[in-house]
Amino acid sequence: MVATAVLNHHQRAGALLHRLRRQQCDGWRLKCKPVCASTEIELSHWLQSVPWRGERPRAVLADHQTRGQGQRGRRWVAARGGVWISAALPWDSRSGHADMLGLMVAYALCDRLEQAGLPVQIKWPNDLLIDSRKLAGLLPRLVFRGGRLRMVRIGVGMNVANPVPAGAIALRDLLPPGCARREVWTVEVLRALERIQTLANRPELVRREIENRLWANQVKDPQSGEIWEIQGLAPNGALQLCQGARAASWTRWPHTNHDNLYNLV
């Protein structure tokens, strides 16, 4: 059984590489794992053992994760059938707006999904929803050395043909039979990631497109329970809110274990 599982994994990896070449998306250095604790951990180990020199982008892909990493250190089991990727990409130091990295990835992924006819919304800052159910989550990170942005790292988890918990949705629930294949959407995710350097030079486009896809008109402060009206995004991607004469700007979700995550004006 173990030998069969390994063989099936190698066959899937080979099919993925073939599809990447066909779609002229073969500039990546890839590692494909049948199972791992976390693609984020695997990518970190890879970057330590083979130091980053700003060459081709790298990505670790897994069939199955036993301890996937999410926002604020959340852990979950990522079952087979989904797209689980952690990527490292070079960043042109002349490009600004790296603080909007997560939103750039969210918009690029929305664009790929919308080409398949899917009505995607963005739950600021890092989740993609369809019918108010979570389809994908993002984990963006900036890596600096000596004050200089050295690379960007992006973790992507997308439900494709895997079982999902309550409150989530998978592409197999939304697309015709045969259109929700993991290798197809792995390539779509990689193509979206390739686009972020271009989007970094178009921050106003990203801001406008994200605003058009925001998931709600109101948001609840998880600390105070107050309801705020969503006004849109600031130039740096912060969520702009108001409550009567009061205004707020969130750079990320308020959390009881963190201070100074949002500013009141």
List the helices and strands and how they pair.
Blueprint: H1 2-22, E1 29-33, H2 39-49, E2 58-62, E3 65-69, E4 75-78, E5 83-90, H3 101-114, E6 121-123, E7 127-130, E8 133-145, E9 148-158, H4 182-194, H5 196-199, H6 203-211, E10 218-220, E11 227-233, E12 239-243, E13 246-250, E14 262-264
Parallel strand pairs: 1-2
Antiparallel strand pairs: 2-5, 3-4, 5-9, 6-7, 7-8, 8-9, 10-11, 11-12, 12-13, 13-14
Helix pairs in contact: 1-4, 3-4, 3-6
Helix percent reads 25-40%
**Which strand order spans the largest sheet, edge to edge or round the barrel?**
1-2-5-9-8-7-6
What is the alpha-carbon Rg in Å?
A: 19 Å
The dominant shape is globular
User: How much of the polypeptide forms β-strand, as a percent range?
Assistant: 25-35%
Mean of all residue-level pLDDT scores: 85
Order of helices and strands: HEHEEEEHEEEEHHHEEEEE
Secondary structure tally: strands: 14
Low-confidence stretches at least 5 residues in length (pLDDT < 50)? Answer: 256-265
In DSSP terms (H or I, runs of 4 or more residues), the helix count works out at 6
User: Structural class of the helix and strand makeup?
Assistant: alpha+beta
Distance between the termini: 61 Å
Q: Sheet with the most strands? A: 7 strands, mixed
What would your notes on this structure say?
By secondary structure, the protein is an alpha+beta fold. The protein is 27% helix and 31% strand. It has helices spanning 2-22, 39-49, 101-114, 182-194, 196-199, 203-211, and strands spanning 29-33, 58-62, 65-69, 75-78, 83-90, 121-123, 127-130, 133-145, 148-158, 218-220, 227-233, 239-243, 246-250, 262-264. The strands form three sheets. Strands 1-2-5-9-8-7-6 form a seven-stranded mixed beta sheet, sandwiched between helices. Strands 10-11-12-13-14 form a five-stranded antiparallel beta sheet. Helix 2 (39-49) links the parallel strand 1 and strand 2 (58-62). It is globular and about 60 Å long.
